[in-house]
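ok, trying the design again with the full structure, not the truncated one.
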């Protein structure tokens, strides 16, 4: 984890310069890092990592350190606004909170009455731990349509893990894994979900062996004992090939497989064709390296796999997750110290309970956009975004009239950006809640100012699976910004849901903590991170939370829903193998979305210290490919797919195959005065596809990580023609 750590002596010296120190927890990215916020005269002056926090142990990344720049940014939204000109005109007027919420409530009630609650779509992005509140509002309203990143980010891990073993198994870095296999993840940069790079790095320092699976030479791959440089989109073939090696050499955990695994025999049949020779042909990974990695992982006890969104944003999203889960199970690394553990939270009300999923009427549930086309996603109330855009543009299967986006910028983050743009321009009413006027917010009718993590009380990491809950304390108030939770609690009373909400949102926090016999204020004032009891090998007493009570390598639920019960390799929808004619015109495999230290998806590009770390959108290209295309270091490069084009600055990079190029995501230019903020110029989603036939068949994940492109020098300045 990149960042800084303060000693106790240094901390004491820091404290003497300030008049108040408040412990809280950061949420500039996936959250959880303990911080000490230092104030003077009521103003936040400095933020330090909290050495007493078990999540980050005093470290803090560049985003956390820059939180003050966000909090007091001169261009930050601090008051509600109403658009007074055409969409995208940039003409707004300041209004009161009552005017804003009354207008939104009137629109909600109008569309519910005239078109049905399903015509209203709520949406959120990766951000501010608001998912439980948004689902509660939507379910009580009666709309089954909540638009999230869950179809291709974290949701596939959760969904695949739950149908396989009842919960997502989390790497137990505290108990010294002997081997760590990092698969499509860059934890020291992204610090994702349940994890922080500090723990991973400490495990390596303690002697853990490291296997890195990644098309690019990352920091992690450079440090690895074995780097498997696979062809993008072939993760399942590689995992099944490793499984075959482990079985053939008798390296699997026979006792665990015999007693606790369902579907072993059909799994053996599935992996048999994945010989080292065939896997090398599919993945570009030398067979000897693949075999070596399989042996190292299987013989190192205990071992863990650190994986993430890179495998989820593909057409094999569900199967890649299940294949990695199978590797963990067959090697006996499930729910053991130093392995992958099924942690339990403290005795609180869960995100699912708070989300009131059972209160959505069955007749409304049946109206969820997309129906059961992507059955695994539907089981977790997740929809593919294209269903929403089509319901707006084509009014099928019914019209969507209203969008309410909270902490989401879909114009930059969803596949097929031009279709997204058309939908946002056409929808009758849209409200957006965010920190800044993003390209998405510029198309809204009402914009609400969102509170930062420094301006809210909440139970941090409430949604995660590592077993912790953390007190996030409100430190200051800037302008009229309000937390998403407070906004929806207030709005709920305006649309007739008051009986299911609270006079103030603090009552909701009390309700979540009530099973522990604790109020929010008691939890806040206690100042301690709480964790559920850690118990290993729980399956020995009660099995797994699956229909068979076993670890289902062969998924009975997926079989019931009409999907392949076993993981299988499928070629990416665009590849040298699946579309050879297209490959002749678009001869590079484009991977997207690598994580950058200062940014969180589309956020933070207006924060100058972070923007200086990375001022421009970059395309990485191998020197051999660059020479072939007439591209030099620093040139502007035009990247084209069959769907669109975007401009990046070339960076020559030898750490990947010359047949691959890598582009960043989330780029827009808030410094530009035009209300469009250059949203399309370097937006990688101008190139991506959201064709349903290209998506993961169970989860609906859009394959934004693996597509074909061509590159050429961009001789002009300005936007792509």
């Amino acid at each position: 984890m990149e960042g800084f750590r303060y000693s106790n002596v240094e901390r004491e010296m820091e404290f003497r310069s300030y008049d108040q120190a408040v412990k809280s927890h950061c949420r500039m990215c996936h959250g959880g890092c303990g911080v000490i916020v230092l104030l003077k005269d009521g103003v936040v002056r400095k933020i330090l990592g909290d050495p007493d926090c078990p999540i980050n142990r005093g470290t803090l990344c560049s985003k956390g350190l820059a939180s003050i720049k966000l909090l007091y940014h001169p261009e930050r939204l601090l008051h509600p606004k109403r658009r007074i000109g055409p969409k995208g005109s940039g003409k707004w007027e300041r209004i009161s909170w009552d005017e804003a919420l009354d207008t939104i409530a009137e629109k909600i009630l109008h569309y519910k009455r005239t078109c049905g609650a399903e015509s209203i779509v709520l949406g959120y992005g990766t951000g501010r731990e608001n998912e439980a509140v948004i689902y509660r509002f939507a379910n009580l309203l009666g709309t089954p349509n909540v638009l999230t990143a869950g179809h291709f980010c974290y949701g596939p891990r959760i969904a695949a893990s739950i149908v396989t073993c009842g919960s997502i198994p989390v790497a137990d870095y505290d108990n010294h894994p002997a081997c760590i296999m990092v698969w499509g993840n860059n934890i020291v940069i992204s610090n994702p979900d349940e994890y922080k790079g500090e723990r991973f790095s400490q495990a390596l320092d303690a002697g853990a062996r490291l296997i890195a699976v990644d098309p690019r030479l990352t920091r992690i791959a450079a440090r690895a004992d074995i780097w498997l440089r696979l062809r993008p989109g072939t993760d399942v073939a590689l995992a099944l090939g490793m499984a075959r090696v482990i079985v053939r050499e008798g390296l699997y955990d026979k006792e665990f497989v015999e007693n606790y695994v369902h579907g072993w025999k059909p799994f053996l049949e599935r992996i048999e064709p994945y010989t080292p020779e065939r896997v090398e042909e599919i993945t570009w990974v030398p067979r000897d390296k693949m075999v070596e990695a399989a042996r190292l992982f299987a013989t190192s006890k205990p071992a863990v796999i650190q994986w993430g969104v890179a495998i989820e944003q593909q057409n094999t999203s569900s199967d890649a997750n299940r294949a990695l889960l199978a590797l963990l199970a067959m090697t006996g690394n499930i729910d053991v110290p130093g392995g992958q553990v099924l942690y339990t939270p403290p005795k609180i009300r869960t995100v699912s309970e708070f989300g009131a999923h059972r209160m959505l009427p069955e007749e409304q549930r049946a109206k969820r956009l997309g129906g059961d086309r992507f059955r695994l996603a539907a089981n977790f109330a997740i929809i593919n975004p294209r269903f929403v855009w089509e319901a707006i543009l084509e009014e099928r299967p019914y019209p969507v009239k209203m969008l309410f986006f909270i902490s989401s910028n879909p114009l930059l983050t969803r596949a097929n950006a031009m279709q997204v743009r058309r939908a946002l321009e056409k929808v009758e009413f849209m409200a957006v809640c965010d920190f800044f006027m993003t390209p998405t917010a510029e198309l809204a009718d009402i914009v609400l100012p969102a509170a930062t993590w420094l301006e809210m009380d909440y139970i941090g990491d409430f949604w995660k699976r590592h077993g912790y809950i953390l007190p996030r304390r409100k430190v200051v108030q800037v302008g009229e910004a309000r937390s998403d939770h407070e906004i929806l609690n207030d709005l709920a009373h305006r649309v007739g849901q008051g009986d299911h909400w609270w006079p103030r949102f603090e009552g909701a926090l009390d309700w979540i903590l009530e099973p522990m016999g604790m109020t929010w204020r008691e939890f806040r004032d206690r100042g301690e991170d709480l964790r559920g009891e850690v118990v290993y090998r729980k399956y020995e007493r009660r099995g797994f939370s699956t229909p068979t009570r076993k670890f289902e390598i062969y998924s009975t639920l997926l079989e019931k829903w009409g999907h392949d019960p076993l993981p299988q390799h499928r070629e990416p929808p665009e590849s040298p193998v699946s579309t050879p004619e297209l490959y002749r015109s678009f001869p590079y495999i484009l991977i997207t979305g690598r994580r950058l230290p200062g940014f969180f998806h589309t956020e933070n590009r207006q924060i100058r210290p972070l923007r200086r770390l990375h001022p421009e959108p970059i395309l990485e290209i191998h020197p051999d490919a660059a020479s072939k295309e007439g591209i030099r270091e620093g040139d502007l490069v035009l990247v084209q797919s069959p769907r669109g084009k975007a401009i990046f600055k070339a960076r020559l990079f030898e750490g990947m195959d010359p047949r691959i190029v890598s582009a960043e995501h989330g780029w827009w230019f808030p410094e530009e005065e035009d209300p469009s903020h250059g949203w399309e110029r370097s937006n990688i989603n101008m190139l991506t596809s959201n064709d349903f036939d290209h998506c993961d068949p169970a989860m609906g994940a859009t394959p934004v990580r693996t597509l074909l492109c061509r590159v050429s020098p961009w001789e002009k300045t300005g936007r792509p023609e």
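Keeping the full-length input from now on. The two ends are 40 Å apart (CA to CA).
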